[in-house]
UniProtKB/TrEMBL annotation:
Protein known as: indole-3-glycerol-phosphate synthase
EC number from the UniProt entry: 4.1.1.48
Reaction catalysis annotation: 1-(2-carboxyphenylamino)-1-deoxy-D-ribulose 5-phosphate + H(+) = (1S,2R)-1-C-(indol-3-yl)glycerol 3-phosphate + CO2 + H2O
Domain Indole-3-glycerol phosphate synthase intervals: 4-255
GO aspect biological process, one term: L-tryptophan biosynthetic process
GO molecular function, one term: phosphoribosylanthranilate isomerase activity
Species per Swiss-Prot/TrEMBL record: Arcticibacterium luteifluviistationis
Matches recorded under PROSITE patterns: IGPS
Metabolic or biological pathway: Amino-acid biosynthesis; L-tryptophan biosynthesis; L-tryptophan from chorismate: step 4/5
Taxonomic lineage: Bacteria, Pseudomonadati, Bacteroidota, Cytophagia, Cytophagales
Broadest EC class assigned to this enzyme: lyase
Amino acid sequence: MTILDTIVAQKKIEIANAQKTVSIPDLQATEHFKRKGLSLKASLTKTGSSGIIAEFKRKSPSKGFIKADADVAEITSGYSDAGAAGMSVLTDTEFFGGSKDDLLKARAANPNTPILRKDFMVDSYQIYEAKAWGADVILLIAACLDSEQIDTLSTKAHELGLEVLLEIHNEEELKKSPLKHIDVIGVNNRNLKNFAESNVNASLELIKVIPTEMVKISESCISQTATIKQLKDVGYQGFLIGENFMKTENPGAALDSFIKEIEAQ
């Protein structure tokens, strides 16, 4: 069993438990459920966009805690102030140390920045949660979903006014994925089955087969501004980066310096 298999199995248990205590009508009755979502796609493609989706992440399965006592409001506000095009907030607790409260606090602190709920989405119930917690975008990971699930979940997200980021790691995952309700395609440079690899080769290879009209982002294993230039040159408009900023004393300041270095290139 891979790490991804373990995470998905745990996720299904968590969803079943959550549904026993909070119904979909309960989620629909929340204040955030009524708000109009922000567009990550528009933020990434507008003139002058930094293209950076800055991630708030306390820990990872492969490296343990990165910043256990991180203040989500403070850090995500720093990201917005620095010019992040969007933010990614982990809500998985067991493996990444995130929570519903992290997303709610990030939303409250950043009313004008698109926010991705970063989690392992395998059930429509989670999409209702994402909307109720203030997310603008959901993540669908092709490695743990079949074609029908991708279609069903992306359709439901659009029905609820959420955008969809489809994450792929290889050409096979792209080919099996219905793209009708996909807003952004992300290439994860890290193999989620073993959390190995530390380069952007996957992004550089897959750009050749992703439809040209799709908005494309590169995820993980990005720490140098030279890599951003390399990825931009081949057609990427966005770059999801978390650990590179989270491991610093002041993630917002680290992002600010990173963006200024990009602009100076």
